[in-house]
UniProtKB/TrEMBL annotation:
It comes from Azospirillum melinis. This is Tetratricopeptide repeat protein. InterPro entries: TPR-like_helical_dom_sf.
């Protein structure tokens, strides 16, 4: 059995799964979230919200984009939506 660079079993073993690289031109979910945060900090709330919604379409269990959506909604004085997203940050999605 060949070893991976850190000395464990071969990388194709079941317990050593890694995420596949995204297709060329695509970004990872982590990069999308980083970009959403940067958009929000730059005052580009709609672009940040669009990215958060895209992340949640793929990974609805992720709390970070849900919290950022709540923060954006709060900043836009949409308290009902803000509360809904903030609650989703705390409670797991079934």
């Amino acid at each position: 059995m060949r070893k991976n660079p850190v000395g464990g079993p071969a990388a194709n073993a079941n317990h050593c799964r890694t995420e596949a690289a995204p297709p060329q031109g695509a970004i990872t979910l982590a990069q999308a979230l980083d970009r959403a945060v940067a958009f929000h900090q730059a005052g580009r709330a709609e672009e940040a919200a669009d990215l958060c919604r895209s992340i949640l379409q793929v990974r609805p269990e992720r709390a970070e984009p849900r919290c950022l959506l709540g923060t954006i909604a709060f900043g836009q004085s949409v308290t009902e939506t803000s509360d809904e997203h903030k609650t989703g940050c705390i409670k797991p999605v079934p």
